[in-house]
């Protein structure tokens, strides 16, 4: 397919358990294809929540940056990263550094910040030999599948993210905030509703309360939008959890999540959330040159464990303020 002028679901692969897959023939000109079909492909993302485009032949970082730039005019700079990334020119990032043998649970990118991307762009330059798929999951479907009492509690209380920054696990203070200047970090925290406390030796602990359920700023759909399960201690592999508790203590984990009132989230709740995600996940193994576009509010994404080298580049775009998404809990800022 070389044209999307009459794009419709009948021209796409739509199969249960798989993301919407659009096969194209870019004729060796991925940037030209993206420029010509920008509105059509963005429309398909609006229809399906996520679209995997196959056939662009993306082969290097420069081409990926150009294609990303054709598909969005509003790239974002990442703030408050939970794990390191490599930043490339033109607002392109590496995938988050995360152990290959550990999956990344379903989540919405930067859903703990006050400004987050509405669009994520992912480009595969090199697929792994085993695993490593980026799964996607419809968040309104997840919300509807949750028990009513649990849903009501999270709507009423929101969720709490706690972080203990160090120089060994996860993003460092400098990597997360883009500066090592304490005054600048404190100003950022105060402006973004983040409680903070400096620790002996220069470490930092933070707490931030956010809404677990929001409304999509375009469609008005209610979406389960958070990183409650992904950043919770009970999603970690048992041996990793035990190691981190032994080294840092139960209250000093690099990150953890709680109910919005500060009470711990039980292991049973976290497992339930992950089970609901898995029951509604669509995944397709990456092929070299693939492009995926994800509506970050409507659609959660994950990363399977993998073997072998894997290079997937990431773009964040079309910033949205939490305040424009009908949050259910108040965030107090300076």
Automatic annotation (TrEMBL):
<dbReference type="GO" id="GO:0017000">
    <property type="term" value="P:antibiotic biosynthetic process"/>
</dbReference>
<feature type="domain" description="TauD/TfdA-like">
    <location>
        <begin position="33"/>
        <end position="313"/>
    </location>
</feature>
<keyword id="KW-0045">Antibiotic biosynthesis</keyword>
<dbReference type="GO" id="GO:0051213">
    <property type="term" value="F:dioxygenase activity"/>
</dbReference>
<keyword id="KW-0223">Dioxygenase</keyword>
<protein>
    <submittedName>
        <fullName>TauD/TfdA family dioxygenase</fullName>
    </submittedName>
</protein>
<dbReference type="InterPro" id="IPR003819">
    <property type="entry name" value="TauD/TfdA-like"/>
</dbReference>
<keyword id="KW-0408">Iron</keyword>
<dbReference type="Pfam" id="PF02668">
    <property type="entry name" value="TauD"/>
</dbReference>
<dbReference type="InterPro" id="IPR050411">
    <property type="entry name" value="AlphaKG_dependent_hydroxylases"/>
</dbReference>
<keyword id="KW-0560">Oxidoreductase</keyword>
<dbReference type="InterPro" id="IPR042098">
    <property type="entry name" value="TauD-like_sf"/>
</dbReference>
